[in-house]
Amino acid sequence: FRTSGLPTDIIIEVGEVSFHLHKFPLLSRSGVMERRIAEASKEGDDKCLIQISDFPGGDKTFELVAKFCYGVKLELTASNVVCLRCAAKHLEMTEEYGEGNLISQTGKFFNQVVFKSWKYSIKALQCCDEVLKYADEFNITKKCIESLAMRALADPNSFVEYGGPMQSPGGSVLWNGISTGARREDTSSDWWYEDASMVSFALFKRLITLMDSRGIREEIVAGSLTYYTRKYLPVLKRRRHSGSSSITPLSTGSVLSEEEQKHLLEEIQELDLPCMQKGLLPTKFFVDMLIIAKILKASPSCIENLEKRIGRQLDQATLEDLVMPSFSHTVETLYDVDSVQRILDHFLSWDHTMPVGASSSCSSVDDGNLNESSQSMTAVAKLIDGYLAEVAPDANLKLPKFQALAASVPDYARLLDDGLYRAIDIYLKHHPWLAEKEREDLCRLLDCQKLSTEACTHAAQNERLPLRIIVQVLFIEQLQLKASVAECLPVLGSLVGRSRKLGSDGFSGESTKGGWETAVRENQDLKVGMDKMRMRVCELEKECSKMRQEIEKLDKTTKGGGAFGSGSKTWENVSKKLGFGMKLKSHQMDSAQKVSSLKSNNENVKIEKLKDVKERQEKY
């Protein structure tokens, strides 16, 4: 700055750097420098000293400002215009101190260049981090964010630099980018994710919040948040499935420290955007964040909030999401069952209650008629049963913890208890040291009436189950068999009635060819129906025989004078102990009488059918 040949008369110290300058160029362009020089000159020193401890952009920016004061033309760019405008505002370099002053020039550059380009707006927003206090004070940050939000809402294909390469109808890329009727490649709605992730999270949060308020689709905002999180939390990125997203975050130049990652994680989970509340973010996203929070030893409130978010949309989770390893040094289990228990409790607290007057057993309720809450509860019940089966082989999983998680699911949520039975069976298999009382306590969670036929068959032959449960399953099978026989009797009666009606009314009046064909067809249908009934009766006889063998087998396993007695009174004692109030002998007699009646009816129907057919043939 000594090109004028005049000796300097002022020293400006910016931080640790000293600038030897002249007073006149500075005071003629800046109101602040005019006042500071006047104050320093009152002390009477020939060369005054001014110290500036906190200058926007530091000594490098002040050097550019000084050059501008000396008449040097500055080359404004998106990288330096933010600091220069903050410095110009800070020094009050208005038009009052010269036409075309620095405030005016930087303002024009923002309006004509920066705010008209997505790329320059992103670059300027990045620079706002360096002078955030001044950028916020002079509304530079706000204007950059508004510019980006406006352009994100617009069609990305309208941007030359981000619309993809120009292509001719034949597919060749034009070298000059001039529009000649060629088409641009379509750009997806996530084109801006990588650019937006270059700024700090404080600015990124303000950006997506403004985008959400301006009406951009919530799933797009949720996608950008997922992208940002996976980019700066490498552990979460490694857990991501290869096919879960169409975008792969680019590697960053600097890796955040564990403390920075923990701080970022806690900031993300505190967001209160609509996309965080409506389930637009997948449950796996929050599960991964929960795992990282435990690895990084985040605050208890952070972990609790993440568990609440997972519980809020637990019905959207998969079994893989819940299988979280345990990171506690005090717990010996392989999986974090305690966390899943808390997540389930949070789900149950979100107004997922059984409608008033509903039955405790929903085995006869059609899935299509369930309301939304019940459907969610049913999905969670299946998920928890699957999770119990997954963690059951863990030898360190204590019975009270397994039992508590299984009992947390309301009874009405399970349409069938097959999943719970499978989980209990696996647990008993891998915990053979359990006492008989502990086995019985665990199996009390089962409702044998809600087991499918296949599950009942397996349970009746399962040696790991307590004897009381096996007998209860066999008794329920007997009741189901009785119900099946009772259902067959009305069907048989209707077939017999149709045959008699056909014999009395089929040929009244003059016989016709059409009437004869109808009679033959009815007789054929009757024959098919009788054959089916005969096969069903045989099946029922076999099932009765099998049930008797099972009862005899159980009777032999108990000694005389034991808990179930001996001889013909065994089943009566079992019935009374279980509270069903029925006797085996009466069941057998009823079944035998009904089977005999079915056979007799079959023979009578066949004789009547042959007589009717013969009479009709002769009459015709």
Automatic annotation (TrEMBL):
Boundaries of every NPH3 domain copy: 190-480
Choose any GO biological process term that the UniProt entry carries and state it.
protein ubiquitination
Span of domain BTB: 8-78
| Highest taxon in the source lineage | Eukaryota
Q: In which pathway does it act?
A: Protein modification; protein ubiquitination
Q: Where is the composition biased (Polar residues)?
A: 591-604
Q: Which stretches does the entry tag as region Disordered?
A: 591-620
Residues spanning the membrane = none
Family matches, as InterPro entries:
BTB/POZ_dom (IPR000210), NPH3/RPT2-like (IPR043454), NPH3_dom (IPR027356), SKP1/BTB/POZ_sf (IPR011333)
Q: Which keywords does UniProt give here?
A: Ubl conjugation pathway
Q: Where is the composition biased (Basic and acidic residues)?
A: 605-620
Q: Which Gene3D superfamilies match?
A: Potassium Channel Kv1.1, Chain A
Q: Which PANTHER family match?
A: OS12G0117600 PROTEIN
The entry sums up its family as follows:
Belongs to the NPH3 family.
State the protein's name. Answer: NPH3 domain-containing protein
